[in-house]
Amino acid sequence: MTKTIRLTMAQALTRFLANQMTMIDGRKVPVFAGVWAIFGHGNVAGIGEALYQVRDELPTYRAHNEQAMAHAAIAFAKASFRRRMMAVTSSVGPGATNMVTAAALAHVNRLPLLLLPGDVFANRIPDPVLQQVESFGDGTVSANDCFRPVSRYFDRITRPEQIIPALARTMAVLTDPAECGPVTLALCQDVQAEAYDYPESFFDERVWSTRRPRPDHEELAAAAALLKSAKKPLVIAGGGVIYSQASNELKAFVEAAGIPVCETQGGKSSLPDNHPLNMAAIGVTGTSAANRLAEEADVILAVGTRLQDFTTGSWALFRNGDKKFIGLNVQAFDAGKHRAAALVADAREGLLELAAATAGYKAPVSWTENAKQGKAEWQKAAAEVTGPTNAVLPSDAQVIGAVQRTMGSEATVLHAAGGLPGEMHKLWQAGAPGSYHAEYGFSCMGYEIAGGLGAKMAKPDDEVVVMIGDGSYLMLNSEIATSVMLGHKINIVLLDNRGFGCINRLQMGTGGANFNNLLKDSKHEVLPDVDFVGHAKSLGAISEKVASIAELEAALARAKHNDRTTVIVIDTDPLVSTDAGGTWWDVAVPEVSQRPQVNAARKSYEENLKLQRVGD
């Protein structure tokens, strides 16, 4: 006879989560490092009480904003190479919908996140409850249905026994490198508190390992033959290289064949920046070294990348008429994009087998040496734009240079959205795999500070440096207080250009008037003068403002020895960006306008459209 234990649905949920394990470096650790929770009606009585019962095995962390705590959970998973993750629970209504943006971010970036929003009553007797979103035409809808398009798996738990199959599916999705992404279990608030006789075996400890699919023999043979025919081969390293922890295999593969490598935002740090075959960033935010090769390459091996438009220059970057793509990806949806020869496999296993299948192949020496020369030229150009300056308002690049010189390549640097990703991608000299942490899949402003907290929780011994603009800081800064409360020190460099400088430059580049991006160009009676130092201090951080690059370097040196989160503010020039490197990006320009600048931009736009390869 099956032994059972009587628990509420919420108690069963939390007990199950606490018993999921994984092995990292020979040590067994919980898959779930904890649960972020902001309690309200719909989760405080049910899952709140259940979390209290397992607080020692499954820690609960209190945050200040629902979107931010989900960002922290996502960053933790990313910094853990998707081997460990966190869950997030909110109340019904705005607490839940606050997390939809974070769910979309995790979905786009293929990162594991367990969302546990409270939901309306399954029995519907009290309807409409506080914060309930009522659909006039569908009685089954709640606010949590917003999560459906941004979840890999969505379920609404309307009976306590449903949590058994739902959690089985949840773990299958969260731990599968191909399906990986956010899971939403909407927990009806009455059902959270309902009891059921659960099988004791449901709570048995389980150890999850990373699935590493090996390539199909025919796909491998086709990919190997294509690569061996290449005269100008190129590797694009995406985030899949990082998540698969395949950096050593990538290094061995390209060194044996003499193939240059370029990196996406997600794949940056796949190889150390100083590796002679690493051409660094590719695409719109790429280096001249990488993009020059991409224009000429005849066979492009895309490893673990979804080939986003910033990587491909909106499919105008690759200009060799005879080019062919090989898509090495654990997800078939990504592997076969743009008529690529699909090689569906784990990045590490795929590189190992592709190396064996192409043993003896060498790229022409002239191609490899040409790549190395281009890298040397790029390094010289990068040094010029990142060097020290006495300018009243330094550029973002000069701030990046100061952080690089002071904190070194061993620090974990984190950023998202705005102008910094473009400069960081091409200019930051990453060291160890995962030391470069960018959220540029969803390009979500507000990720940075909460993400820095999550990264620090995953890498407590690392110096974590958050690079953020004033616009993003003002959107979401509350987790500074959480970082202080939890004792997780992060270093925040706040670049104040008094507005949305990146979009202002894009607006100018497409012929638009300076309008509604910089504060001075927005509708106002009085220009705001935000005291960022005072604000950060009010949240418990150490903070100071610096007036020069030299002062910034001195402040960063002090920050290394501070005992809690530190915010360093520096004014920067909103109009200056690095001209070197980069390529075209498809941002549609109006066909007709009263402004001659727009008409001129449209003419240039139409010329660039001719470079796009439809169907490639």
From TrEMBL:
Any Pfam family matching the protein: TPP_enzyme_N
Entry's Gene Ontology molecular function annotations: 3D-(3,5/4)-trihydroxycyclohexane-1,2-dione hydrolase activity; acetolactate synthase activity; flavin adenine dinucleotide binding; magnesium ion binding; thiamine pyrophosphate binding
Assigned EC number: 3.7.1.22
SUPFAM superfamilies: DHS-like NAD/FAD-binding domain, Thiamin diphosphate-binding fold (THDP-binding)
Domain Thiamine pyrophosphate enzyme TPP-binding residue range list: 418-570
Keywords: Hydrolase, Thiamine pyrophosphate
Thiamine pyrophosphate enzyme central domain: residues covered: 220-353
GO cellular component: acetolactate synthase complex
Residues of the Thiamine pyrophosphate enzyme N-terminal TPP-binding domain: 49-131
Hydrolase recorded as keyword: yes
InterPro entries per record: DHS-like_NAD/FAD-binding_dom, Myo_inos_IolD, THDP-binding, Thiamin_PyroP_enz_cen_dom, Thiamin_PyroP_enz_TPP-bd_dom, TPP-bd_CS, TPP_enz, TPP_enzyme_TPP-bd
Ribosomal protein among keywords: no
GO biological process, one term: L-valine biosynthetic process
UniProt cross-references to NCBIfam families, sorted A to Z: myo_inos_iolD
Protein name per Swiss-Prot or TrEMBL: 3D-(3,5/4)-trihydroxycyclohexane-1,2-dione acylhydrolase (Decyclizing)
Taxonomic source organism: Phyllobacterium myrsinacearum
Lineage, highest ranks first: Bacteria, Pseudomonadati, Pseudomonadota, Alphaproteobacteria, Hyphomicrobiales
